[in-house]
Amino acid sequence: MPEESIAKIIYIFGKLTKMEAALSAAIAKSKIPAKEIKMFLKSIHPLQMERTPLFQYMKSLFREIGMGEFKVVEIAPFIIKFGVRNSEVAKLFSEINGKTCYITSDALKMFFEKDMGIPVNVREETCVNDGSDRCIFSVYMEPLAVLQYILDENDFEILSALKNGEGAEVEDAEIRISIMEKYGLVKDGKITEFGEKYLEIGASPIVVPAEERPWKKLSEISEVIASAKSFAEAFSRSVDEDIEEIDEEKLVNVVEEAEKSKSFAELVSKIVKKEVDEDE
Q1: Burial 102-139 (b: 16+ CB within 10 A, else e)
Q2: Class of the 3-144+215-235+245-253 domain?
Q3: Percent of the chain whose predicted confidence (pLDDT) is above 90
Q4: What radius of gyration, in Å, describes the C-alpha atoms of the chain?
């Protein structure tokens, strides 16, 4: 393998390591308040969602890490589509034709599951490296987790009343019903079969604590990101210094391993484990 190819792999690995370290550090330092998650999930239109503090935080966080400019492209029941431009991840794999931004998919999954507590599956729909004008990611959210955030006791009262063919005297009933229509619990002013099943489950809504753990200021998170990037950069530089001594037979095919790995963290673990096993 030419030395330039080895150098390219090490360069990409270093860049991705910095992004992964920065995101992990930021998420570990910040817990999003339930009330902000509720506001985010109750958004009916993309522009409304983009105006929420949660999305503004997410947009700034991902931009600072180097994952590009995020926009909300589409909102569907339990699905959010994000469009991304100017992604450093896509640029790192610009020589490959196809969908290459599995790192961004992994980052979105980590953000939703660890910072918001919502299990998700993320799929890259389009990529600039397959000829599209931007990368688009679909986030498929676990329905029960979402509904526990957006519904409260007043919503259950509305659903119960609709099931009995009655009207519920609840404040903001029209707004609440429009949100439940978005998620398929109500249609044309009537409770749906899905709504009835959810009512039967009786899932407890997430109660917003009177005093939640403070949401870190973005300036504080920026410091954490900078520190994490510095650490990761120091690590990647130490690897780079030994580039001439690398045994080509020990090189891991990064693209092949990435396809078999569930996350970048798992990919890094595989690489480290391979090196340890071979050293032994």
Answers
A1: bbbbbbbbbbbbbbbebebebebebbbbeeeebbbbbb
A2: alpha beta
A3: 28
A4: 22
